[in-house]
Queue: 3 jobs
Job 1
Amino acid sequence: MINKYGVKQLSIFLENRKGRLLEVTEALKNASINIRALALAESAEFGILRLVVNNPEKAKSVLSSAGFTLREQDVFAVEVPDEPGSFYSVVKVLSDADINIDYTYAFVGDSSKAVLVFKVPSHKLEEALKALDEAGIRLVEPMFFYD
Amino acid sequence: MWNQIEGAPREELERLQLKRLQDTVQRVYHLVPFYKKKFDELGIKPEDVRSLDDLQRLPFTTKQDLRDHYPFGLFTVPMDQVVRIHSSSGTTGKPTVVGYTRHDMEVWIEVMARSMKMVDVGPKDVVHNAYGYGLFTGGLGFHYGAEKVGAAVVPSSGGFTKRQLLLMKDFGATILCSTPSFALHMAEVAKEEGYDLSKDFKIRAGFFGAEPASEGLRQALRDVWGLIYIEAYGLSEIIGPGVAAGCPYGHLHIFEDHFIPEVIDTNTGEVLPDGTEGELVFTTVTKQALPIIRYRTKDITVLHREPCKCGRTLTVMESVKGRADDMLIVNGVNVFPSQVEHVLTKVEGVTPNYVIVLDKKGVLDKLEVWVEVDDRVFKDGIGALEQLKAKLQQEMLNDLYINVRIKLVEPKTLERSMGKAKRIIDKREAEGLKKND
């Protein structure tokens, strides 16, 4: 199921330095790359910017040649009703299947739907997709994000 | 003067040196395969050493040679005669090891007692010894020397500045042994803590070594503590502290009845005349466990052989002006950039780009290693990166014996902030601590 539902996410290493986020976003703007979802994790000295974009291959080459350290990761996304308890129901499935969540972030899709992005350990990805599918949770195909 | 030999006529001293050199050459030739091979390659027999001038025909010994024979390969005695082992951090993981017989310990204590005698340290003195105790030779070297002259020794070792000040005041310390930067740090903390340095402390002299000190720093220590500044020079490969000591006239006398000095051209190995700057080389002539022929210290200095106003006829070396290699001295601890690289490679399996940044935190040295997080090193998780940082810091402490702060930076940051590709940035010199200012 990874081939069908795996979403390419770019993780970018950023020092906590003035103007650095501006430089990433500027590089993406100049290459006409659209950011579909993002999350930023930070520590005292550095941060990791995680992006799902409309054209991961192009974004990767643009950012690499601009000198950014990055890594491509397989994540997955689910679509849930935008209402209380939706997030819980997804986390519950993963928890029952004994799968740890590395990190997750979310955005509102349209007026009634929300999209949740999850990263789980790569050796657990297939298992996670299967468990969610069997529980009737709607998995989002990558085409939803890409052009 | 502790021993009459320090002021003996040169001829007498040189006769003694030659006799001892001949004994040492016999000893290493017959007991250490490494030296026999080297002598044979050069076609030299121990009997060929007929004058002190013949010393320059003998082969050199390097730190690499000590490492190649780790741990005890150059010892000339069985281990049951060894009563002490010290070591310093090595250049790529393995430490450099030195050993002492009972007799070697007596030599060491003798030269330390001579050092103490430079300012007549004796039974009325309380010696506060803030050199690190342990594998380093600094702490125990000064300890035994001070005991030998009958002083009361306070073995406080390094760190814990406030507690040290309390003990110095309450125990009435008269002599301070420490790195010069730590002595200045203590003075600053003392002021912050509300001590009156001239009233609360009785320090009359200090023995300072293990790191270079500018004349500005020396004068600052004289001023704040009101002490006589005595320079201490040594290295564990030769014996530890006590290879040379400063007299009250500020001349650093080499105890050359035990350690014969030469200065050479570091590139050609040619011996240079007195008064010429070059690399300092020592041959130990009384040591048993680890005698060393022509050890290349990599310290750059100048030798002088005129009699001193203090009455000593011993050769004088100028304060070390610099290094013939890339060794760094961080709060008195020797660090080689190759050690840092070794740890990075060991932990990550790859060698990331890095820069060593030396700076001052107050008056003490601070060592940071900026590691570039490139695609090979990058892990998609704050926790994983923090763990990497902690692991590197732990391994640095383990291998280098000092605290190193790791900073994870983006690629090219180093060039961007430093201007050009450099492996070592030493900001300390900008702070008025140049060696010869």
Note: The interface with chain A takes residues 373-375, 377-382, 385-386, 407-413 of chain B (CB under 8 Å).
Job 2
Amino acid sequence: MKKFALFIGCNIPAKVQPYETSARAVLKKLEVDIVDIKEFNCCGYPMKNTDQTAWVLASARNIALAENAGKDILTLCKCCFGSLKKANAVLKEDDGLKVKINKILGKEGLKYQGTSSISHYLSVLHDDITIDELNKKTIDHYKDLNIATHYGCHALRPSEIMKFDDPASPSLFDNLVKVTGAKSIEWASKLDCCGAPVLGINDSLSYDLTEKKLGSAKKAGADFICVACPWCHMQFDKIQNQIVSKRNKEYNLPSILYTQLLGLRLGLGKEELGIDSQENQDNENLNQVYSKLFDTKEKKLKKKRKKKKLTKKPVEKKVGKKETQSVE
Amino acid sequence: MAFDLFFNSSLILLAIGMLFKIVQWFSYKIGIQAQNSTFTERLASSLKALLGIIFSPQIAIVLKIFVLDVLFQHKILKQDVLRWIMHMLIFWGFILLFFMHALEAIVSDAILPSYYSTVNPYMFLRDFFGFMVLSGLAIAICRRFFMKIHRLSTNKMDVYAIFIVAVIILSGIFLEGAKIISFTDFRNMEEDFSALEYKEDILALEAYWVKYYGLVSPNVTDQISQETLTAGEEIHNESCLDCHTRPQSAFAGYAVSKIMKPIGGLLDRMGLVTFLYYFHILACFIGLALLPFTKMLHIITTPISLITGAIMQRDKSNPLNIATRQLIELDACVHCNTCSKTCSQGPAFDIKNNTNILPSERMLSLRQYYKTKDLASPQFTAIQEGIYLCSNCDRCTVVCPAGINLKELWYDVREEFIRSGALITPLILSPFSYNRTYNRDDFGATLSDMPARHAKSIIASRYKKKSHSKDVLSLTDTDNEFKDKRERSLQDSTFSYCFSCENCTNVCPVVMNYEKPEQVLDLLPHQMMRSIGLGLENLALGSNMLWDCITCYQCQEHCPQNVKVTDIFYELKNKVSKDCFYSQKE
């Protein structure tokens, strides 16, 4: 198992705190050790439009810091993920730029080498911890929950650099959702953009794109749109509310962070995951949707295994029973 | 007499200075809060709020913050242990000296049992407190000048603050040393308190003081007989002992007296004690009189900032009071650079060298800006780039040891710039703008992407747009230099492989969003690639497509020719930023 430094980025601590809370809680539950590097800065993503060298410098500094600590980077945000990984690719090809960047980093005793890898939270769950392991760790399953997975552009593309999943028909996120017993539905705009990159630059375009996604997921019967990126979450959360009030539309399709979706089935509590169900008290539709998060059934998979154990080792039977009882 | 004159003058100057500052805090404006308020309205509303706090349970929070953050400086401790040790040493050393020593007539004489500055423990404590301050200052000097802390800059005010405190303490210690060896002082004391009649007795006492109290006397030779000492001790015990502990307890002053001893007689005859006395009190009074206009003002403003920061809430507090608080906060900043050290956008400063990107330096610029509001100055261009180049991670606000709500200050000042119409920076056309629409409900901003529209109109006026022209495009004014430059740019230049299959355009979600996309976007992605291929630079650069691109990389992913469409867009956007905006500065 790689050793990771957690990269939180700028948006999460300021606007999407539950993501950090739940991500840390899940990692702790899965016994993944992480370190925090206080000196991490912005990944440089917002600088790309106006000054790409500034973006590469920002990313390179983070990577250099991780290298200094002998860690790989674990990002929560898909744009940080894309930004850092792309900067890595650019620097590997452009020696002149690398020299220039290292000259600046050298002022504070840092050096970019390009030895630390960059992984997104979902890849770590999928590839490093593995689906089998997650299946073992989940305690029960969602009974009747339809999830629309939102992959996020900057994780998938450009695929030759990101290598996150098959860019045309990805399955990584869907597999992770299935671990929880929820149904990962098929929907038309699954791989499209959430609209966040142009918010503030062209608001109506941004709203259009978000609406298109919400409409498509709703039509496919989703209860939640599931994300693993703060930008996408903000877009489907607060910006959805803006759309509701400014455009007189109603979707009632809340966004849930994957770390929360998984965390609940790992036996973590609402508070530990930063889930605030009080927020939607006056909306009957949303209340119904949220109640599905707490409607569970016993895991099928585990049951089968227990039966096997029952016949072979009767001693362990009691232990197994206790576990299921405590869950119920 | 002279003391009273100096003291009263400095107090009057301090009062005038503070009054001036208070008027500034309540009448100037920065940000968008309380734009149309008057001095009296703001003063009245803050007094009302103050009374409201005093007679409410919130007073408990005020007390808690006062103890935890003002007296114990917990916020500094959380960020930097060394700086906390430094500041605690200076703060407590100085405060204790201030009450025990400077205000001895008012405080020490009244409350301390048998207080006498030349008797232990007070004699020792005075030096100990002074030593605390000096140790703190030594750390401060190390941090500022030798430790090379990244992005820690030191300006004149920081130097002044260290200098004035050092001068006050050092002159005090030297004064003490000079007094220990002073023969003149000895004679005066002897005359006042023992009035010895016989010359031998005086000599005996002198000898005793030379031996045990560090006195430098012209009358006592190196050889002192035991008899003289015994006689001297007798007189000493009778007249002096009650009020004088041996000077070794005043370790700092004593050490200095040892250094001065070889030329002690000369120094005393030159009137060193009187000179140092006036030097010491003048340094104190200058520090006091200048307090409102120097960094030392933070001893008043920072506690205010810490307390108001803890009890005021943006959605509940009166905007008039928020406006006043923000002005006080500008003066509460001590330029400690904690924010700049933690700033997410630090690397942008490392490459752009605009100091306004760093929050601590921006505070200094804003302190100048609010007085003049000069929107045309080059300084303003730098401030607006700095304030817009902020990813709103709120880290500065979380770490600020002075409790300044930097986050809200940036929001409000940025908004003031935007509403003034003077904000011109390419950063508007980047995800840095996200925050404004995200928070539009809090701002009541009617058109949240208004700055972007303004920026786009600047771009449109520079480049020839397809939608603006009905003429047939000429290929003779193409720019081959531009084409060639592309080969050497940051990323692979691959546009020349484009054969206009239109895959990029067909998968583009932005194109798909519009019924007549060419009217909104000017050029479609494949047309962008073709324009560059043909050397029609202005067509591509002036196209709205660049700024409406959501950078989802669908085009690039689907290109059969491996044209890096999105990456090329980024490069074009960089070029527009440089040509249309940054060049104006130069």
Note: The mean pLDDT of chain A is 91.
Job 3
Amino acid sequence: MKGNKLLKQTLFYLVVAGIILVILTPIYFLVVISLMSDQEAYDWPTQMVPSFFNHFKLEIDGNKYLISVYSPSKKEYVSIIRTDNFDELQKFVRNKTNSNIKKEIFDIQVQKLNELYNKNKEEIEALRSQVNTLESKLNRVTVSTVKLKSQLEKAEKAGMENLISLIKDNIEKYEKEKATYEAQLKELNKQLEEIGSVKFSVSKNIFYNYVRFFQVTSNAWPALLRSIQVALLTVLISLTIGGMAGYAFARYYFKGKNLLKLSVLFVRMFPGISIAMPMVIILINMGFYDKPLGLSLVYSVGQIGMTIWITASIFMGISTELEEAAMIFGTTRLGAFFKVTLPLALPGLAASAMYAFIGSWSETAQAIVLTQFNPTFPVVVYQTLVGAKGLINLTAAGGVSLALPAVVFTLIIRRYILQMWGGVRV
Amino acid sequence: MTKTYSKRWIPYILIAPTIVYYIVFWLRPVISAVYYSFFDENNNVFTLNNYITIFKDEYFKQAVVNTAIFVIISVTLEFLVALGLALIINKKFKGANILLSIALIPMALPAVAVGAMWSSGFATYGWVNSLLYHLGLITADGKIVFLAGSDFQSLMLIILIDAWQVIPFMMVILLAGLQGLSKESIEAGYIFGGTKFTVLRKITLPMLKSSIQTALILRIISAIQVWLIIVMIYGYRRIPVLLEEVVFYEEQLLGFYRVALAYSVIVAVIVSMVSIIYLKVSGAFEKEEQ
């Protein structure tokens, strides 16, 4: 019996752990990718943790420098750029790996490399020529294999049995040859690496994507400020208008109460994006198109209904007896509201304000239609996501910056979210 | 006398701003959308061409079917999982609060962030395949091509992605309802010999009815209007759904503004019909009148 209970409990916690994993894994990867350099983000398989250092390998190739970075996914060095210009190399490496190689460090490494190169010059040259011949051999074999394979296809179509087996034998022979060449090449490269290259590590600027997102997307900063502006205006409009109605809901009976209560549903039945389309013309006539106020006027339509539901449940939680007591002591009804009810409702109203803020902050669909030259922050992130030049790690950085305030606010008002919905009855 | 007279007016004064606001910023655009959807874009003559264009569009039928499949499967799936999750959190075990906090995160994430998350995940070289590889479930050559599945598979993928974000929202409504239930009646159910399942079915769920209705109606309304996540993962017209077609006509084509309006009207009619049928069947209207 006791064992049974233990088993049940373990099973229960396993399910809970599973749920948490399903929720957190995608979020974790979004954050990890937002911390990855271009080189890491486009490597496969994506690593489970972003790297904090980049390991570089520097070689002299002809009279130019060849710099490579270690890829944990491929478990080998991947060449980045071959150049003799330090500034070009620095810029390119920074964009690709998010590491800034300082001039002093580079000079020291170059000096080391030169010493090494002068010491082992002959060996290196010999190895290089061996590598070159091997590479050309390998190329030839690859080309022949491809040719044979297309011949094989033709032969199979024609059904020439003896030819097929002959070609297959040849392919097998070439493939064996290829494998040995590859093994030799690997061995040679390893030797070359030992005597002809220097390796060094440079720390990675882990938040470089965030900096770059705001640099590259020229309108990201103004868009961020605009989003805050829109959200604050939405809170102001929906909380004053919706809060009044919410109080009426909590305290009075009036005709059409049920209808107004369902208005939050009716308002949602006409798609938000479809409201936005005619609103473009209405806002142009009012002079608010493509301005924060115009957007917040549209957002408030959806938020007011929600605010009514939420504030009604908050005011219902504050007993009328307190108001009545204040009135007995000589305050007016309005005075009682401001002196007694409002202070008590304040935390709940703050939560409702945050709820409206999050809703407006995250809204993307209507903003796509309602903005032209002055997009909000979600629209900027959307454009980098669907745009052709959008890099996934940059988009992830934008997405995380967008999501962070919303998540923090939601967790702050967690307690109230449940209370808010507790009073809601359709 | 004057006091009661003024009192009677107070609620109407309090709700007046809301009603004015709805008329100016909701009713007016709705009416102009409906009005213009019946007029030709070039010469402003009454016409049904905008609607005819839609009904002739080969994507329309597909959009209706896809939306219907999406709504039925996603609402059912999300409701069941959300109910289960709410029941688990309501058990008030150690760590229930942590689970609630974590479960709220997807609800808080902006749609764009969710789009970035999953489009980077389900790309063939994305993190989902990487994770499967790290776990040893696939080989380097066995990468699953998530986004190239059949139309039905793609729709299922979208349903899963959408469910990931929407379940917490439904769960919150249900959990709020559960926490408001009186403990006595549930305990009484156990005392009279009910098993866990019968107590859930005969006592908890009926008492939870209004929360369930709220969660379902809000979800049905928003499920019919799904589009952004689909466009972010698949682009336009890969899996046509109703609202995605509206945006396609509005944003991607020139000179189809009024067709887009007509499309919106069709979507609004569908949403209203479904919601009113739902509210009627579930009895939400009758309860209000009591």
Note: Chain A has a mean pLDDT of 88.
